[in-house]
Backbone:
């Protein structure tokens, strides 16, 4: 499927906190040389070593809110006083240029994105069960009991609403989950709606 | 994805003659222990070693036409005086029981099936180009020039109409094509529409 020009695929991966999304996404990017992490816009200050346009597009608050008001963001959120968002133009250009993008965003962001950019492929990562999710959250050793309890409540709510995602991947065995996530990437690239050019090209050659 | 009960997936694979469908399907069945080849109904005589209910469901012409008239076949065709067909009940039962089926059928059969059983996952295998398709057909050394020319014409027509399939897989490098076909099987098993039970089960456990 890599010869003819095809539409790029926007993969949106979200999960309850502790389900293992970040590690899965990192490994997925490692596995697919031609899958790129989407670059978000943010109002927070660049940290040492961060490069504008690579790690984030760094913008000031006025510019960010101008983008919000102009409807240029597919999703955005404010976290600890800083704003983060994904530009619709980034997604549309990638799709048009045949570039596959990976967006690692939370449930709220994915829900917004689904409304503003229907063409994405939405994957929800699930923990095998709540006991294991709690065990993983406690294993991190970074959160208080109160925070863990809040994360579990959020997880419960998100899971009960996750039916609208295109795919569900249970992260029980990590390699199995990574295999399923990889299969979703490969399969979606073969979708005929993105590969009309292959048929047209073959047809033209057939008529020669 | 293999613990919770989910709906079975009906995979329908077709291709122009010479594109390599039969070999790909055989390897796919070898690779997935839990993917079964669908058993067709036929009016032809059982050959030595063929087992009723395993290789085919052997029925007489009267019974076959009774099934046709009762709308019990999802697709059927007459080839060299014998009738072959797939029962709708076979597909519906497999889906309900969580059994994944592979149907290796031609373009005409897939087109009929699409009308009668919309829930299938339809994959079309493509040759990399027509010169290669012709080379493969000639390499078989079984067909006359006339037959090869007819097969190429059919291929051209089928390819020009294949846009309705869910997936397109180009069989240029065999292992790549097999990898893509396998990815489609794995990914479709993760579709949330077939896995509602996972969410319900997790939700119930979460509320304990």
Residues:
């Amino acid at each position: 499927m890599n010869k003819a020009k095809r539409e790029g695929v926007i993969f949106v991966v979200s999960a309850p906190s502790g389900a293992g999304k970040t590690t899965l996404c990192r490994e997925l990017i490692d596995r697919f040389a031609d899958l790129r992490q989407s670059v978000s816009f943010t109002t927070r200050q660049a940290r040492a070593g961060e490069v504008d346009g690579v790690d984030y597009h760094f913008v000031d608050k006025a510019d960010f809110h101008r983008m919000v008001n102009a409807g240029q963001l597919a999703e955005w959120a404010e976290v600890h006083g800083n704003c983060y968002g994904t530009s619709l133009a980034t997604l549309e250009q990638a799709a048009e240029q045949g570039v596959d993008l990976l967006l690692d965003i939370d449930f709220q962001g994915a829900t917004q994105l689904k409304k503003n950019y229907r063409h994405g492929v939405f994957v929800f990562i699930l923990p095998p069960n709540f006991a294991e999710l709690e065990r993983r959250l406690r294993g991190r050793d970074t959160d208080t009991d109160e925070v863990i309890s809040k994360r579990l409540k959020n997880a419960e709510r998100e899971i009960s609403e996750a039916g609208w995602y295109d795919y569900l991947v249970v992260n029980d065995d990590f390699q199995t989950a990574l295999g399923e996530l990889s299969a979703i990437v490969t399969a979606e690239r073969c979708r005929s709606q993105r590969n009309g050019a292959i048929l047209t090209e073959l047809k033209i050659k057939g008529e020669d």
About this structure: The two ends of chain A are 22 Å apart (CA to CA).
